[in-house]
Write a structure and sequence with these properties.
Cryptochr/Photolyase_FAD-bd, DNA_photolyase_1_CS_C, Deoxyribodipyrimidine photolyase, chromophore, mainly alpha, Rossmann-like_a/b/a_fold, 5 strands, five-stranded parallel sheet, 45% helix
Length: 479
C-alpha cells in the first residue's frame, strides 16, 4: 500500500494481542504512524463482572507489549462513533482498521460505523482473526447454514486450512504527539468490596504471553491423552485457553497450527478431539451469526411452550453450590472461586438446573455470562441450548444426567468434590457423591451434619426426572 504520513487508528476489541493481529499488521504495512485504541463501549464490551476482571489485566498486558514496540494504548469511553470522530479530528487520522467481531450488537455497530466513516472520506478496513473461517462463507452444498455439527466439522477439517499465524511486529511508528488517554483504574473493572475475584489469580494470568505459555504447556503435556483425560475434572487435562480466546489474546489459527505435525508423538485421536473442541467454538459462532437471538430464543421453537418453574429458592441454592449434590455444588463453587468450571461439570450443572429444577436455561446462561472469565456470546448460548434440547444438533431433553452417577464416573475418588466442597473433605469415598445415603456414624466421623454443615438434596433425583419427562411430554403434545 502507498505510504502516508497520516496516522492510522487500530481499534482493538476482542483481539488483545500483537501476534497474528491482521488489522495491526495492515497498519504497519500502511506506513504511517499508528494509534492503538481500545474503546469501552456500553453494549459491546465484557459480558459480565468476571470478564471485566480479565479485561483489566489483559489491557495492562497489552499496554506493556505495545510500549516495547515504541507505542502505547489509548483508552477511551463512550459511543464508538463519537470517540472515533473525536480522535480523527484531533489527530488527522484518515484510516481506521479493526478486526471483525461476530456478536449481533458488535456487528450492527461495525456495519453502521464503517459506512459512516467511509461517507466522511476515510479509509476503513476490517479483517478476520477471531475465528478460523468467516461464518458467511461456510455453507452447506445447498448454500445454507449448517445445523448439525458433524458435517460442519468435516467441512472445516477437509476444507481450506486456516491462514498461517503471523508474527508480532517488533516496532510501531508513533505519532508526533499522543492524544490524552483515560486511566484504566478509573474504569473500576476490578471488584473491591467485596473482592470476589481474589482467588482468580491462583490459576489465571491474563495476557498474550500467558496465552502462548498455556498453549505450549498444553502441547507438551495434557494434549497427550486428551481424548480421555478431558472428561475428568480433578485432572489438569484441558488447555485452559478459553478465556484467552474469548478476548483474542491468542488467535484460533495459532492454536490450530500448533497442533500440526505432532502425530509422531501424540495420538491422532487426541489431536482430532482437541481440534473438534476448537471447531465446536466455531460452530457456535456459525449458529449465532445465522440466528442472532440465540441467547434469547429457542432455536427449536417447539420449546416455547415448555412449562418452566419460577423457583427462586432453588435457583439461589444452585448458584451458591448448595443443592446437596456434591458434583453440582463443586462445579458451582469452582465457578465462583476461579471464574471457570470444568467442561464436563458445566454439562452436569446445566442439566441439573434445566431438568431437575425445571428452571429456564436462559437464567443459567445469564449467570454464566456474569461469572465466567471465558464468557462468550456464542458458546454460552449454544451450549445452554444444547443441554436444554432446544438448540441446533442438541442433546435430547430426555437425556437427564444423574448427578450421583456422573460424579462416581468422572470423579471416582472424589478429589474434585473435596477440593471445592471442603465440608465433605473427610467423607469416605463410597459416599462422597451421595452423602445423604451415608450412615449417621459415617457422617459423624467426617464431621458432617446434613442440613447444617452440608445441605440435604433440594430435590429427589428420581422424582425430578419423572417431573422433567412429564413436562417434556406436555410439550410434545402441542407440537
Amino acid at each position: 500500500m502507498q505510504t502516508t504520513a497520516s496516522p492510522v487508528i487500530v481499534w482493538f476489541r476482542k483481539d488483545l494481542r500483537l501476534a497474528d493481529n491482521l488489522a495491526l499488521l495492515a497498519a504497519v504495512e500502511h506506513g504511517g504512524p499508528i494509534i492503538p485504541l481500545y474503546i469501552r463501549e456500553k453494549s459491546c464490551g465484557p459480558l459480565g463482572g468476571a470478564q471485566e476482571w480479565w479485561l483489566h489485566h489483559s489491557l495492562v498486558s497489552l499496554y506493556a507489549a505495545l510500549e516495547k514496540t515504541g507505542s502505547r494504548l489509548l483508552l477511551m469511553s463512550g459511543n464508538a462513533g463519537e470517540v472515533l470522530d473525536q480522535l480523527i479530528s484531533e489527530t488527522g487520522a484518515d484510516t481506521v482498521f479493526w478486526n471483525r467481531r461476530y456478536e449481533p450488537a458488535g456487528m450492527a455497530t461495525d456495519k453502521a460505523l464503517k459506512q459512516k466513516l467511509r461517507d466522511d472520506g476515510l479509509t476503513v478496513r476490517s479483517f478476520a482473526g477471531h475465528l478460523l473461517h468467516e461464518p458467511s462463507r461456510v455453507q452447506t452444498k445447498s448454500g445454507g447454514p449448517y445445523r448439525v455439527y458433524t458435517p460442519f466439522w468435516r467441512a472445516l477439517e477437509g476444507g481450506e486450512e486456516p491462514h498461517a499465524p503471523a508474527d508480532e511486529p517488533k516496532s510501531l511508528k508513533a505519532p508526533q504527539t499522543w492524544p490524552k488517554s483515560e486511566k484504566l483504574g478509573d474504569w473500576k473493572l476490578l471488584p473491591v468490596k467485596p473482592d470476589w475475584a481474589r482467588d482468580f489469580s491462583e490459576i489465571w494470568t491474563p495476557g498474550e504471553n500467558s496465552a502462548r505459555e498455556k498453549l505450549d504447556d498444553f502441547i507438551d503435556g495434557a494434549l497427550k491423552g486428551y481424548e480421555e483425560g478431558r472428561d475428568f475434572p480433578a485432572k489438569d487435562a484441558t488447555s485452559l485457553l478459553a478465556p484467552h480466546l474469548a478476548l483474542g489474546e491468542i488467535s484460533p489459527a495459532a492454536v490450530w497450527h500448533a497442533t500440526k505435525g505432532l502425530s509422531r508423538h501424540i495420538a491422532s485421536n487426541d489431536i482430532s478431539r482437541f481440534r473438534k473442541e476448537l471447531v465446536w467454538r466455531e460452530f457456535c459462532y456459525h449458529l449465532l451469526f445465522h440466528f442472532p437471538e440465540l441467547d434469547e430464543k429457542n432455536w427449536n421453537d417447539s420449546f416455547d411452550a415448555f412449562g418452566w418453574r419460577d423457583d427462586e429458592k432453588s435457583f439461589d441454592a444452585w448458584k451458591r453450590g448448595m443443592t446437596g449434590y456434591p458434583i453440582v455444588d463443586a462445579g458451582m463453587r469452582q465457578l465462583w472461586k476461579h471464574g471457570t468450571m470444568h467442561n464436563r461439570v458445566r454439562m452436569i450443572v446445566a442439566s441439573f438446573l434445566i431438568k431437575h429444577l425445571l428452571i429456564d436455561w436462559r437464567r443459567g446462561e445469564k449467570w454464566f455470562r456474569d461469572t465466567l472469565v471465558d464468557a462468550d456470546p456464542a458458546s454460552n448460548a449454544a451450549n445452554w441450548q444444547w443441554v436444554a434440547g432446544s438448540g441446533a444438533d442438541a442433546s435430547p431433553f430426555f437425556r437427564i444426567f444423574n448427578p450421583i452417577l456422573q460424579g462416581e464416573k468422572f470423579d471416582g475418588e472424589g478429589d474434585y468434590v473435596r477440593r471445592f466442597v471442603p465440608e465433605l473433605e473427610k467423607l469416605e469415598g463410597k459416599y462422597i457423591h451421595k452423602p445423604f445415603e451415608a450412615p449417621q456414624a459415617v457422617l459423624q466421623k467426617a464431621g458432617i451434619e446434613l442440613g447444617k454443615t452440608y445441605p440435604q438434596p433440594i430435590v429427589d433425583h428420581t422424582k425430578a426426572r419423572e417431573r422433567a419427562l412429564a413436562a417434556y411430554a406436555e410439550v410434545k403434545k402441542t407440537t
